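User: structure tokens for this one?
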Amino acid sequence: MNTRTNISQLIYNRILENKEQLKLQFENTKNSIGYFFVDELLPEELANELYLKFPKIEDTKKRKNLREYKYVAFQMNKYSSVLEETLYAFQDKKVVNLIGEICNLPNLEPDEFLYAGGLSLMGKGNFLNPHLDNSHDKDLQRWRVLNLLYYVTPNWELENGGNLELWPQGMQKSQTTIESKFNRLVVMATHQKSWHSVSKVIKNDTRCCISNYYFSQSPILISDSFHITTFRGRPNERIKNVLLIFDSKIRSFVRKIFKKGIRENPHQYKK
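Assistant:
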């Protein structure tokens, strides 16, 4: 039976197998945007089941604007239990602590309310522009420090698009592309320099991802300061970039007046 206890043990064992290699990978990248990834995270049969149990597009929330075009799901009790069990398996204390050891980030805390986390689906034409994640949790009490992305679409190829892009030197330099490969977990640091994006999906298929965030009482960088989710245009999107800068300034101004926004962010699991 696929309970979160069993799944978390599988995740823990697979990461532990590769612990030293993953530590080296994160260490070698931490001065820009620290990250590591591990393939074949779960047994293939389970990873395939997760993909098959993902909700249909029509049963999710559409996010479509200048910044992004994707579909999300976070009210997990509406969907197959194996999705919720797997999502929360990443929040098991031993998994959280192991990833913390790899990234040299002690006292990490997961987010049971899945603020901005949960399930993400991207079909043909969907994208996510370069951005910085919101610096805090929903209550502005903890710093967001790690982003966990677990991809479950079988036979996903680099040329399909929908791949994670890191911009360690900003949008004026070339990006690092991490393929959204089936059964791959990517863990990346989030701070005020961790610009990242998702390339436009080219294939007529759906890229499915299970996402979690880890938080801490302290930011990764001493220089980090509070910021909202901040978007920019790609290097060839000059007009869009100007519009997104203006958009970010307006939304930042609003947050200075209303610390938690004008309304509560609906992207959280209401238990």
